[in-house]
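Table S2 (text version). Query chain:
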Amino acid sequence: MTAQLHARGDVAVVVPAAGAGVRLGPGGPKALRLLEGEPLLVHAVRRLAAAPSVRLIVVAAPPADVDAVHALLAPVAPVTVVAGGAERQESVAAALAAVPEEVAIVLVHDAARCLTPPSVIERVAAAVREGADAVIPVLPVVDTIKEVGGDDIVLGTVDRSALRAVQTPQGFRATALRAAHAAAADSHTDDAGAVEKLGIPVRCVPGSDLALKITRPIDLALATHLLALPDPDAASA
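Corresponding structure-token output:
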């Protein structure tokens, strides 16, 4: 049975958390690395559970750690934990299979974006609820972007006004996400990209600077600093 969170919620969130996180250095699965004494996954689930729209959370954990991850998360929120796969796509599919068919909205969230505020989660869910089949939270690109050739010579400067940096959670009409996974012919790391290949429009909503992806050791240092900042959702409540 899938664990229930908010009875009035209409959203399921799947969290692929079986990746090794090689770029973060040695130390086990990335989602279980510590940030101020708690695993990234715990921080992520705590914020997901604080979003009123979320009815259930399904985590895809390393197969050998399913029971341990369930025990880890039980004090935080009622969460269903399933065995993930070697690739992110396999983990999302495994978690998606545990989402009841009657849940019409599914969000896919990276545990590495563990400080994503509940307000972003609600914003993505609301956009799907309002009729979008696929929604991504984004931020404007602030760096100058150069296109570079194989010989390290600049080919041109990309117009960044039309570029956006994509975050998670990415939200979907459940039928669109299931169709994208069923049709995927090759591995993908971005579920919105898989939906795009079906010709389904993807809508953008504002993301958050707090939703950075923890990939490298310097990201952990930055997240430690951000964790000490006032909660933006609490301030606006």
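Notes on Table S2: The longest helix spans residues 118-129. The longest strand covers residues 54-61.
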